[in-house]
Recover the amino acids of this structure.
């Protein structure tokens, strides 16, 4: 009561006695128990990168086996296990979840939020992913799966592959699937509800658009594969015959379900990459992004069309011509919104003041590498051409141009661009450039020639080939390229280790960025922002810098630019 103080001679000291308050965790427990989107984001990035290295080592072993004709380095079984582990790891444990890692760290920062909408669910997503990876890799101690990343029926049936490897694969799909699904719902809720004041849909950073569409595609596609692998599980263990033709089931049902998920999965992997590129290009061209609305809209259109093309993976199955034509034309159609993006990116570079930072180099490397992958995709969408090329190395070349060109190069662009924000230190530009050139050259040496290997008729997923024509030479070149590529990746890892300790201190905004993550300190505090500015355009940081400059010039006395310096 206010009157009580009048009778007291000494002022009361407010006493707060807290009972049962736990000290904040420090050390490794602070990571295991965290629900902070930034820590979860870093755990995603680090653990998926570990899987990238595992998948990369598997790729190198595949390439070593193929470096010589009639090689006996690996047995056929081990070879099958390696390409299955490689493809599955790269897709389910590296590219898809690393995009969730970037999304986790940067979406809340870019929209001016303090965390994700459901922080505990977010932690659950991460631990489900880790569980999936552990279950899957545990299979190497008994019998790894041998059915390729597509696990086609009837090969995946217990008649042909009775070992538990396929079951480990099924559990990987389930666990990483639940992880991504929960994560996707979280991204959607965060982006829909937690944007800073003034950030309408039309002012949202393009990376957030990409993550939004990524989330929607995951929500639409994942239940289908989850159902498909559940049917496979019951076929294998509980006497059902969904995919067993001899009992009235249909192996083609698997292919339809798998690719109804599988093609959108491709866009799930590359759309966030497109988002990263759309953030980096304008910053290092010192120009606003060209065609913001067109890029955002084409992301949505690509996702929609991406749901209508799945059977272009099934051109060699018996289908009526009209069906083949439909899937050919729908696949062609995707080139239109993709072309819209390409032209807008090039127009962003056009007449810009380009700064060739490592992030920008990776972004430009992405542009033309992905373009080649897109063009070979159009070739493959012509079904008579596909009849010739399906299951050859031409397809392996195409898919790596898309996945390495589209996803991996943009992931590396993102690492170089955002490392200062996550750590407070710059990544070395010298080592970065070395890494970029090794990776780019290594990549094209490895995969360009695989188009020729495929055109010469070498099938994919075979552990040996005869010494005919130029096959041995071509394969040797491809293997050499893969080691150059691996060296490039290694240089970045070394760069990260050195820069974590010795990198130059970056400050909050080393690149003069456009988006809100650069508004806060590097690394950001637990609550991200003490206050969030009102958003007035797609480039809030430019607005803020302009405002600061205006205030400074208003305050400072007008100085004659020609006047000699006095001190
Ligand atoms: C690091 C460089 C890489 C090399 C040298 C490499 C090499 C290979 C090779 C030679 C094959 C064909 C195996 C065969 O058909 O017998 C293959 C398959 C595959 N790779 Fe890669 N790869 C690399 C990176 C990646 C990345 C980053 C991804 C995905 C994002 C990826 C996804 C796949 C997939 C999905 C397959 C098909 C697996 C299957 O047939 O089931 N690869 N890779
Ligand atoms: Cu496809």
């Amino acid at each position: 009561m206010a009157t009580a103080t009048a009778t007291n001679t000494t002022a009361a000291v407010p006493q707060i006695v807290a009972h049962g308050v736990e000290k904040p965790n420090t050390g490794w427990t602070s990571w295991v128990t965290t629900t902070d989107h930034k820590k979860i984001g870093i755990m995603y990035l680090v653990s998926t990168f570990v899987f990238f290295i595992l998948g990369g080592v598997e790729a190198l072993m595949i390439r070593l086996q193929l470096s010589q004709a009639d090689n006996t380095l690996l047995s056929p079984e081990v070879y099958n296990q390696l390409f299955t582990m490689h493809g599955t790891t790269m897709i389910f444990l590296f590219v898809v979840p690393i995009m969730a890692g970037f999304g986790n760290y940067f979406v809340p920062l870019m929209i001016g939020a303090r965390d994700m909408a459901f922080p505990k669910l977010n932690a659950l997503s991460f631990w489900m992913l880790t569980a999936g990876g552990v279950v899957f890799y545990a299979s190497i101690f008994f019998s790894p799966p041998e059915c390729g990343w597509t696990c086609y029926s009837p090969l995946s049936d217990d008649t042909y592959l009775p070992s538990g490897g396929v079951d480990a694969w099924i559990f990987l799909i389930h666990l990483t699937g639940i992880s991504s699904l929960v994560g996707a719902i979280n991204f959607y809720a965060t982006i829909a509800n937690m944007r800073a004041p003034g950030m309408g849909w039309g002012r949202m950073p393009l990376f957030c658009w990409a993550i939004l569409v990524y989330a929607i595609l995951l929500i639409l596609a994942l239940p289908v594969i989850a159902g498909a692998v559940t049917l496979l599980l019951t076929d294998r263990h509980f006497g059902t015959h969904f995919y067993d033709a001899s009992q009235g089931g249909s192996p083609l049902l698997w292919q339809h379900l798998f690719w109804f998920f599988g093609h959108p999965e491709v866009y799930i992997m590359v759309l966030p990459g497109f988002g990263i590129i759309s953030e980096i290009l304008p910053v290092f061209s010192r120009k606003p992004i060209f065609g913001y609305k067109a890029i955002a809209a084409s992301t949505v259109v690509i996702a929609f069309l991406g749901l209508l093309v799945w059977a272009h993976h099934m051109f060699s199955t018996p289908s009526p011509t009209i069906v083949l034509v439909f899937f050919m034309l729908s696949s062609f159609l995707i080139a239109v919104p993709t072309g819209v993006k390409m032209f807008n990116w090039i127009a962003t570079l056009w007449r810009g003041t380009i700064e060739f930072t490592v992030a920008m180099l990776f972004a430009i490397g992405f542009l033309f590498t992905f373009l080649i992958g897109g063009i070979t995709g159009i070739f493959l969408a012509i079904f008579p051409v596909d009849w010739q090329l399906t299951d050859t190395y031409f397809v392996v070349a195409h898919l790596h141009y898309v996945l390495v060109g589209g996803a991996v190069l943009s992931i590396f662009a993102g690492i170089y661009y955002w490392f200062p924000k996550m750590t407070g230190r710059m990544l070395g530009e010298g080592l970065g450039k070395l890494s970029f050139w090794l990776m780019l050259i290594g990549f094209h040496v490895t995969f360009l020639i695989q188009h020729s290997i495929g055109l010469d008729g070498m099938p994919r997923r075979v552990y040996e080939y005869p010494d005919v024509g130029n096959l041995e030479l071509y394969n040797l070149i491809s293997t050499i390229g893969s080691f150059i590529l691996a060296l490039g990746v290694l240089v970045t890892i070394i760069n990260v280790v050195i820069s974590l300790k010795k990198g130059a201190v970056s400050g909050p905004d080393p690149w003069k960025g456009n988006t809100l993550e650069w508004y806060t300190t590097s690394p950001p505090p637990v609550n991200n922002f003490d206050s969030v500015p009102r958003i007035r355009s797609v480039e809030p940081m430019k607005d803020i810098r302009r405002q600061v400059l205006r205030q400074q010039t208003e305050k400072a006395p007008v100085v004659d630019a020609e006047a000699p310096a006095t001190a």
Summary: Confidence is low (pLDDT under 50) at residues 1-7, 560-567. The pocket of protoporphyrin IX containing FE (ligand 1) is lined by residues 56, 59, 62-63, 83-84, 86-87, 90-91, 95, 148-150, 396, 399-400, 403-404, 407-408, 446, 460-461, 482, 485 (CB under 6 Å).
